[in-house]
Write a structure and sequence with these properties.
Number of strands: 10
Order of helices and strands: EEHEEEHEEHEHEHHHE
CATH superfamily: PAC-like subunit
CATH architecture: 3-Layer(aba) Sandwich
CATH class: Alpha Beta
Number of domains: 1
Oligomer: single chain
Shape: globular
Radius of gyration: 16 Å
Strand order of the largest sheet: 1-3-4-5-2-6-9-7
CATH topology: Rossmann fold
């Protein structure tokens, strides 16, 4: 059974949630980790589901052991962040999506789901494009802030796709933000684009993303082990966007 375990009280008013499950280029995870660190967000809940690795994680210079999938909150900015230090596999994805979606509906949160679109030919100096899709009435948010439209038909897969699917089934407001990204290595530049072109305008929160450029190589090294784990996982278990022509 999947559950959200609330561990401390926070006061939020129709917050936005930024989702950071590991996927292509680790774009969502890098962006979400940056928000948690930049705003010193408060850890207040964990998410558990059958099939999730039963592990404890710890951080540098800290004695606290934590569950691998956690929710953080910033009351001042009315912001939530979903941080995961493990991949969510195929077995866990449906229950995970049900539990998180039901909880988000209960608290009145609008989720921003993040995916990388593999772009193996993306030039290192090229600015990766960002586009958005939506469920419920959230498309108006994308239109109001001029977030780009998809250039071709596609699908969001993996656990992030399960979350988007569940929101669509229930006709709940949710946004999917997709950025072209490196399919093999952690991509801080693509994560910066997600924040600058999607998360920041949609949430109304100002985020300093200079560190994602200044410390890009350090971030890549920190995330490389998780990226290798993701490469070893089956493609269907990895959160990513794909053009439908790949299935033709």
């Amino acid at each position: 059974m999947a559950r959200v375990h609330v561990r401390s009280d926070v006061t939020l008013d129709e917050p936005f949630l930024v989702e950071g499950l590991p996927g292509v280029g680790l774009v969502g995870k890098i962006a979400t980790d940056h928000l948690v660190d930049e705003f010193d967000m408060t850890y207040f809940a964990s998410v558990d589901a059958e099939g999730l690795p039963q592990v404890g994680v710890y951080d540098e210079d800290s004695r606290e052991a934590l569950p691998p999938v956690r929710l953080y909150a910033d009351e001042e900015r009315d912001l939530l962040a979903l941080q995961s230090d493990v991949p969510v596999d195929r077995e866990a994805a449906p229950g995970f999506a049900d539990a998180l979606t039901n909880w988000l509906a209960d608290v009145g949160a609008t989720p921003l789901y993040l995916s990388g679109l593999p772009a193996p030919d993306l030039d290192v100096d090229e600015v990766p494009p960002v586009f958005g899709v939506a469920t419920g009435d959230a498309a108006t948010l994308l239109d109001e802030h001029d977030v780009g439209l998809p250039s071709e038909q596609g699908v969001v897969g993996g656990p992030t796709g399960a979350l988007v699917n569940r929101a669509a089934e229930l006709n709940l407001d949710a946004v999917g933000l997709v950025v072209e990204s490196d399919p093999q290595f952690p991509d801080p530049a693509a994560s910066k684009r997600l924040i600058d072109e999607g998360i920041e305008p949609l949430t109304g929160v100002t985020v300093d993303t200079a560190a994602l450029v200044d410390h890009a190589e350090e971030i890549r090294e920190q995330k490389e082990r998780l990226a290798q784990q993701m490469q070893q996982a089956e493609e269907s278990e990895s959160s990513q966007a794909k053009p439908l022509r790949m299935f033709e």
